[in-house]
């Protein structure tokens, strides 16, 4: 009955009817929660039927809630259209002002700056890729050299001390390579940060 009143209400009282409907829906939801608790306390042979009825009531109330929201949405759209219509009818149109220039020079300069920064970033990424490729090649070369040195050392019977020194040097070289990569990434980040 309240939903029927909602369709026929005027603009002043429609909010009151909506609030009343929402309050009743909230009350029904709270009662349904109590009903759900009570239905779980029913005897096992009646419990399933009681649960089914509570679920049906929940579905009906959710349907009412959806109908209320749809009505509110339609009313909001209608009010917005009326406001826009009133604004359009109340607006006074005049001829264009004398200042109709478009700031194209500043936009063009901004676009050129962006293009320049983009090219600089491409070059920076390309040089970073080349550096990484060079490091990979050096790593492969160093691994091959390390293997050959180990072979020669085994053949010549070098002492364990010399072998440990070589391995320590390889370990230090790995840290130097990682440090160089970190510095390169930091430089790239700073360039991106300050050039764009």
Automatic annotation (TrEMBL):
Q: Which UniProt keyword terms apply here?
A: Acetylation, Coiled coil, Endoplasmic reticulum, Golgi apparatus, Membrane, Protein transport, Transmembrane, Transmembrane helix, Transport
* Annotated GO biological process: intra-Golgi vesicle-mediated transport; protein transport; vesicle fusion
Per UniProt, what is one Pfam family of this protein?
V-SNARE_C
User: Membrane-spanning residues where?
Assistant: 175-195
| Subcellular location as annotated | Endoplasmic reticulum membrane; Golgi apparatus, cis-Golgi network membrane
- InterPro entries recorded for this chain? GOSR2/Membrin/Bos1
The UniProt GO MF terms for this protein read: SNAP receptor activity; SNARE binding
> Which family, according to the similarity comment?
Belongs to the GOSR2 family.
What is this protein for, i.e. what is its function?
Involved in transport of proteins from the cis/medial-Golgi to the trans-Golgi network.
- Can you say what this protein is called? Golgi SNAP receptor complex member 2
Species of origin reads: Callaeas wilsoni
């Amino acid at each position: 009955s309240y939903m029927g009143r909602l369709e026929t209400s005027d603009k002043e009282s429609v909010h009151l009817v909506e609030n009343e409907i929402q309050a009743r829906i909230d009350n029904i939801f709270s009662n349904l929660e109590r009903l759900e608790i009570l239905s779980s306390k029913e005897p096992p042979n009646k419990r399933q039927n009681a649960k089914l009825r509570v679920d049906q009531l929940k579905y009906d109330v959710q349907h009412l809630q959806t109908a209320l929201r749809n009505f509110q949405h339609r009313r909001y759209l209608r009010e917005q259209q009326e406001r826009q219509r009133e604004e359009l009818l109340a607006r006074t149109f005049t001829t264009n002002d004398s200042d109709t220039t478009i700031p194209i020079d500043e936009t063009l300069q901004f676009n050129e700056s962006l293009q320049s920064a983009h090219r600089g970033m491409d070059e920076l990424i390309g040089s970073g890729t080349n550096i990484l490729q060079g490091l990979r090649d050096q790593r492969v070369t160093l691994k091959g050299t390390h293997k050959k040195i180990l072979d020669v050392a085994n053949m010549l019977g070098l002492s364990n001390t010399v072998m440990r020194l070589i391995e320590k040097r390889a370990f230090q070289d790995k840290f130097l390579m990682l440090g160089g990569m970190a510095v390169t990434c930091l430089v790239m980040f700073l360039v991106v940060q300050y050039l764009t």
